[in-house]
Amino acid sequence: MCYPMVGRPKKEYPPLFEPLCINFEDGREEILEIIPVLCPECRSAVVGVYGTHKRKGRRVQYYQCKNPACSFNKTHNTARQFALTTSGGVREVLDGMLGKMTKEIMKGKISQSAIAEKYGVSDALICYLRSKIEKTISNLQGLKNLVVELTNDTAVAEDETFIRINSVPFYIIMFTGYTSHKILRIKVSKTRNEKDIREVFEEANRNTKLPINVVTADAWGATQTMSKNLMRKITLVIHKHKKPYDKAVIWHIDYEKTKRIITKIGLKTNFLKNGARESIFT
Asked: What is the pTM of this model?
């Protein structure tokens, strides 16, 4: 007599949704959006919880992709594991809701309350985002003295600040024009590598009448790498937002046929001190 084979019933994985929260510096937090938990590789919603991992003194919930067709499975023995802040749904929040909010804040065409109501968040959250961005811009005071002649924002300043989402830092990258004093491009990103900086630079360059030929930035290496890989003539002024604010390094990047030539000059300067009027290009 033959009996039908009885196997373990296939486990169902209903869609998971989790809150994505912005953490204020005073310890408060606010839900930014409820997002679906998606695999960062295949973007499938077929995921399950996969224990917790220790991160800086706390436990963070992890998930695992349960999609058998996930491309990650082709090159790995175990399925893709990830935290909420690296899941597939976060990118849409950064480029969508959070990215749009930061742009509207800096345009200043509508009130903070109107922005808060439009995106369903509190006035306090909009105020917090504005303060983070404006504090970063204030660090650039005096940088206009780094160059002698400015024409239609051929010189820009690059800087970043960060906000914490579910206790993980996310970066607000911006390029500000010296002549217009406007943010030419702003982006919220999980990382601040060369690819991120290059994307923001290229968009800022499209927003100027003439090509950008001078960039001032802090000591972050991604901006230096980007400047070298632009494959065109450009001047990079590197400064540090740390006391005593008295050092700068200038890179002049030029080309002779296929040969890159970088001339580096290091010097002391007081250009970051309030009220300073020294020009390091004179």
From this structure: 0.78
